[in-house]
Amino acid sequence: MNRPKHTTPAQTAATSDLAALDHAHIWHPFTPMRQWRETSPLIIERAQGEFLFDTDGNRYIDGVSSLWCNVHGHRVPQIDQAVRDQLDRVAHTTLLGMASPPSIELAARLAALAPKHQPDAPSPLTKVFYSDAGSTAVEAAFKMAVAYWHHSGTPTKTGFIGFSGAYHGDTTGSMSVGYSEWFHRPFASMVFPTTFAPAPDSCRAPAPLEAPARSDAPDWPSQDIALNNALRNHCLAELSGILERHADKTAAIVIEPLMQGAAGMICQPPGFLRGVADLAKQHDVLLIADEVATGFGRTGTLFACEQEHVVPDLMCLAKGLTGGYLPLAATLATDRIEQAFHGEYADARTFFHGHTYTGNPLACAAALASLDLIESTNLLAHINASAAIITERLGDLADCPHLRDIRQRGIMVGIELCEDRRTGRAFDPATRTAAHLCETMRPKGLIIRPLGDVIVLMPIPAMPHGTLHRMLDIVIESIRVWSATLRNI
């Protein structure tokens, strides 16, 4: 493998011109803009496979899968060709009162691949509603859930139960069920009331369940079986109590299955998702599974729900749906839910919801090509082999005194930093410790992003193992150097 080229800090004239225009005009998402305009931005102009190239010719491993959406790499010939072929037909037509071959074919494929009650049985998630992003997929699911109960003669079931720490997007509805004081404080007046149940978090367990201080223990809190069993049972008991009080007014429970992503890669203990699904069914409440981040193989199965044999009533997909090529989302629903919207025109049961680019043919063509590749390359086996490599390699950090936890589901990984592992004391957020550590990895040829004090590893699922090892070399070396520096201060 060729080493990445890195120029001197002085940028080329072209990069400087672009940086000036960026600073003058672009408002970046999730980016502190005053500080951004004081820096020289990293400007990516092209990519190949698992690598990104900036305008100065430097090469970087795409360690965040271009915000968790790229599946097969960049400039994949099969997906490129599928998009070109579709361009020769039509770039976009509406699905309002019309149809298109790519959207029909993709809906049929998704329905065939969706979670099933039995391996050889068809999935009950047979209906597909398209939108363009994870937030919009979730918003559609909310409206489907509330309208389902309305049309079914139970109009009082309008509320939602979310989980503490959840993130489902930034539109007003999705904020409501995943409210974050850090992200959403100015928008508190815009969200609808939601009942929140506790989500299991081994690093922040309730006092009676806290993990013991671990100065020499090699295990991480998220790997403590007794702690996680107690957490699972505690959180399910709390949810059960909420449902006993509020089920008659609750339309749905919303969950990120197996792992809460934006909360800092918080793993759910085995059995938690299954327990939530069982409680939802017991209390006649719909279950919405937000598989936007966990779908398309990242946890080791095509959908995370499969690992606990859970079939939700509504399932939200986005990010990896097109292999990371084009914006597309889908909300999958059961026949039971979709049929509640059937009726005469005068009944006004139509699902009055939609988007201009719903079922965009280019995006659907890319998604179909991506699904073909998942199957033809046996991608899930590759992902599970990658997960085993990650687990083994990160074991080298077991003795690091400034790591609080390492959490992993498949190839979704969170490495939580702390000032003192024995007490779990966190760094002052103002120090931006994890962000600065991630920045030290860029000159070594790796782009990753933190979530607070959690370093997130989200390699492209198809990343060759040689590149994965190089990515882990950079992460492990950088953490060791950083930790040694702290010990010497």
Q: What is the secondary structure topology, with strand pairs?
A:
Blueprint: H1 13-25, H2 33-36, E1 44-48, E2 51-54, E3 59-62, H3 65-68, H4 77-87, H5 101-113, E4 127-131, H6 134-151, E5 159-163, H7 172-176, H8 181-184, E6 195-197, H9 225-246, E7 250-255, E8 259-260, E9 266-267, H10 272-282, E10 286-290, E11 314-317, E12 329-333, H11 335-339, H12 361-376, H13 379-394, E13 403-409, E14 412-417, H14 433-441, E15 446-447, E16 450-451, E17 454-457, H15 465-488
Parallel strand pairs: 3-15, 5-6, 5-7, 7-10, 10-11
Antiparallel strand pairs: 1-2, 2-3, 4-12, 8-9, 11-12, 13-14, 14-17, 16-17
Helix pairs in contact: 4-12, 5-12, 9-10, 13-15
Keywords, separated by commas or semicolons:
15 helices, 7-stranded mixed β-sheet, 4-stranded mixed β-sheet, alpha/beta, Aspartate Aminotransferase, domain 2, 489 residues, Aspartate Aminotransferase, domain 1, globular, 17 strands
Would you mind describing this structure in some detail?
Helices cover about 35% and strands about 15% of the residues. It has 2 domains: about 15-70 and about 380-489, Alpha-Beta Complex (Aspartate Aminotransferase, domain 1); about 80-375, 3-Layer(aba) Sandwich (Aspartate Aminotransferase, domain 2), CATH 3.40.640. Helix 5 (about 100-115) runs parallel beside helix 12 (about 360-375). It is an alpha/beta fold and about 500 residues long. The protein has a 7-stranded mixed sheet with strand order 4-12-11-10-7-5-6, sandwiched between helices. It has a 4-stranded mixed sheet with strand order 1-2-3-15. It has helices at about 15-25, 35, 65-70, 75-85, 100-115, 135-150, 170-175, 180-185, 225-245, 270-280, 335-340, 360-375, 380-395, 435-440, 465-489, and strands at about 45-50, 50-55, 60, 125-130, 160-165, 195, 250-255, 260, 265, 285-290, 315, 330-335, 405-410, 410-415, 445, 450, 455.
